[in-house]
Amino acid sequence: MTEQAVPGEPDRAPEPAGDVDGEAILAVRDVAKHFGGIHAVDGASFEVRRGSITALIGPNGAGKTTLFNIVTGFQRGDRGEVIYDGASIFRRPPHVIARRRMVRTFQITKALAAMPVIDNMTLAAPDQPGEKLTGLIFRAPAARRREKEVHERAHELLDVFGLREKADDYAGTLSGGQRKLLELARALMVEPRLVLLDEPMAGVNPSLGRKLLDHMHTLRDRDGVTFLFIEHDMDVVMAHSDEVIVMAQGATIASGPPEEVRNDRAVIDAYLGASVA
Ligand SMILES: Nc1ncnc2c1ncn2[C@@H]1O[C@H](COP(=O)(O)OP(=O)(O)O)[C@@H](O)[C@H]1O
Ligand SMILES: [Mg+2]
Fold first, then answer.
1. pLDDT single digits (tens) 115-125
2. Any atom of ligand 1 within 6 Å of the Cβ of 35
3. Which one, 7, 20, 72, 229, has least CB within 10 Å?
4. Which domains does the chain have, with CATH numbers?
């Protein structure tokens, strides 16, 4: 496993799981997906506790991103089952899954980069009745109220993420780290119950990275949001997750509290036998 420290990241003991009630918000059962002869995911099974911060780790090519794609509906699994909030979402389309408030972050595309930060935020909000109507004068009071709520939430989130001053700047002018924060802030516009993050710290400077992690804890503690994040930095995983799921060669090979997983023989072997990310 990688042992490199995050500069400026103080050692932090794993925090208690907070309001975790033991119930799984997400259950993945024997999921598989192949691309031609490549078995990208090959028997992945795990549960994510409601209100937890759960890390998904594994060597490069283990199938983590493909598994995220299957869970969020962006790719169709070959077999298995995915239960979210008590109902099957396996092979359901992404918008149906998103509507149930499971979200993942997306890179700020070229189109979004050419828009002000605030528009990036409001566009991420679900159903804006005002959008379809032409002039302000014709808008129903309910639509205006909704629009106001969306703006308030957007500004509140920009505040939280330290991006308030950037509200009117084009998203394309943000630094890499600020973009990552905006990606997370956008995802939060839908008031999600489960947030999936694929290597949120990659390319983010340490101080912004710390901010991102702090927000994750705040949102979990304050709003009960559950997080499942892919991360290759073991120091971050050890310090910030309640549970760790380990994948290798498409399969889940271990899961449990971070300190347990770190000492698991199968996990150590999997990392030693692979090119470490
Ligand atoms: N669209 C695809 N077509 C073909 N092979 C793919 C595709 N997506 C992923 N793979 C392969 O599946 C395996 C798992 O990839 P991935 O899910 O990206 O792993 P990880 O995120 O753990 O690094 C790798 O061997 C990768 O090359
Ligand atoms: Mg990946």
1. 999 999 999 98
2. yes
3. 7
4. 1-106+193-277 (3.40.50.300), 109-173 (no CATH)
